[in-house]
Write a structure and sequence with these properties.
It is a single chain. The protein is mostly helical. The protein contains 21 helices and two strands. The chain has a two-stranded antiparallel sheet with strand order 1-2. The radius of gyration is 22 Å and the shape is globular.
């Protein structure tokens, strides 16, 4: 009887099937960026015990020098860069084969949203039964909000992916000019916010900043950064701009929000975060030739394939694993939480805590990674476009629900259920609109 294939053997089989023309560095950067986010989150969330109560410590606020580390750990620009590369190549292939926008985006939307739904349902049940069992509502709210922080990114990324046909057309027409127009828009928004104090306009930079970085992914796919020297020049230029913005401008050092800081570089993004994205793009692509040679090694490439096969699960569930370990420590009387964040003892304990987080995350990966691999029925459904109104309505409902869950938490301090049912309903209804119901063939070609 043949041995049951392991995760590694299955990944190796897929790695061997990769066509030689595939840019493996794209997959490597995708895996690298998500793992960097996971490590960063596990570091900055630093609860500790004080006077018998757990305090929700934030490392960047407790130890200010660690804010400089966010220049390396805030790698969401890399993910949008990789997304731009992949979306441009995929959309171009769809156009060449006569596919439609509905066919292309339906598949992408479903593949990104399907892994989120189990996370949403589990935390809804936790909020519901935690409230019924008498767990302090503030604890339930904080735990649910912390665990669901990762979903904000998907809300933004889905909106960026939704307009790929138009941004790709702008790239084909104007090339790098399309990037500079978006960058100028980000500058104008920051000026309106910081100099003119126009309220709420800064939220437009979720579009300007991330679309600009996404355009750099198009530039990468078209060979603009093929020469390492040119990529390095972009990296140095972005770094110089970032240093000047932080040193001479109003922008804080940290590239993520810090409690007590009047300005955040990430919520919503600022020109400083765009400068970081330019720097990371340049430095990452300057290393591309050497990295692609290294990725010819089958073992290294298999590791990249393995991580990419469960990457959404790792990203979505890593803070749930963190919360589980923190709750366990609290139930044991705060064991390990009496050490003040940032002290030598705290840093020396990080490997132990990381081992515990990984131990809690592995079962979640084994249980929920299957939602990243669509079934045959789902694949067949992806090849059939849905009505345009359902696609757009589903997208808006899903994005609104994901954003609201990260901002407000699905747990409610009021009401009988302890759950903000409207937040839970939004992505579920949106996903149902996209996934279920009669299928109609849209033959309106775009582009």
């Amino acid at each position: 009887m043949p041995d049951k294939p392991t995760l590694w053997s299955r990944a190796e089989a897929l790695a061997r099937q990769a066509p030689p023309e595939r840019n493996r560095y794209v997959d490597f950067l995708r895996a690298f960026s998500i793992l960097a986010v996971v490590i960063g989150h596990w570091l900055v969330a630093a609860p500790y015990m004080e006077n018998g109560a757990v305090q929700g410590g934030h490392l960047l606020g407790i130890v200010p020098w660690t804010q400089w580390l966010t220049w390396g750990f805030q790698v969401m620009p890399i993910f949008f860069l990789v997304g731009g590369f992949s979306n441009y190549v995929s959309w171009a292939a769809t156009r060449r084969t006569g596919g439609t926008y509905a066919e292309w985006f339906t598949g992408r939307l479903q593949r990104l949203v399907n892994p989120v739904l189990p996370l949403f349902l589990i935390w809804t049940l936790f909020a519901l039964f935690g409230t019924v069992m008498g767990v302090d509502r503030e604890i339930v709210r904080l735990a649910a909000q912390l665990a669901l922080i990762p979903v904000w990114f998907l809300a933004v990324y889905l909106m960026v992916a939704a307009v790929v046909p138009w941004t790709a057309a702008l790239w084909r027409r104007f090339g790098l000019g399309s990037f500079w127009v978006l960058a100028a828009g980000a500058v104008a928004i920051d000026a309106a916010t910081l100099a003119l104090h126009v309220p709420y306009v800064n939220f437009l930079n979720f579009a300007f900043v991330w679309l600009a970085v996404h355009q750099l992914g198009y530039a990468w796919s078209e060979g603009v950064f093929e020469r390492p020297a040119r990529a390095l020049l972009w990296g140095l230029g972005g770094l110089a701009a970032l240093v000047l913005l932080v040193a001479l401008g109003p922008y804080p050092v940290a590239m993520i929000g810090v409690p007590g800081e009047p300005l955040s570089n990430s919520m919503p993004p600022t020109v400083a975060l765009l400068a970081l994205g330019i720097a990371q793009t340049g430095f990452a692509l300057a290393l591309q030739p050497a990295a692609r040679r290294l990725l010819d090694d089958l073992r290294l490439w298999t590791g990249v394939v393995l991580i990419n096969g469960m990457i959404m699960t790792i990203y979505l569930w890593h803070l749930t694993a963190f919360v589980a370990i923190m709750v366990g420590a609290w139930l044991l009387g705060g064991v390990g939480l009496e050490v003040m964040p940032g002290t030598p003892a705290w840093w020396l304990a990080r490997p132990v805590w990381f081992a515990l987080y990984i131990a809690a995350l592995v079962p979640l990966i084994l249980l929920f990674a299957r939602f990243e691999r669509p079934s045959r029925q789902v694949l067949e459904r992806e090849n059939k476009p849905i009505p345009g109104w359902r696609l757009i309505a589903g997208l808006l409902l899903i994005s609104a629900g994901l954003a609201a869950s990260a901002v407000f938490s699905i747990a409610s301090p009021l009401g009988i259920t302890g759950v903000r049912l409207w937040i839970v309903a939004l992505p579920l209804i949106g996903a149902a609109l996209v996934r279920f119901g009669p299928v109609h063939d849209l033959r309106r070609r775009m582009g």
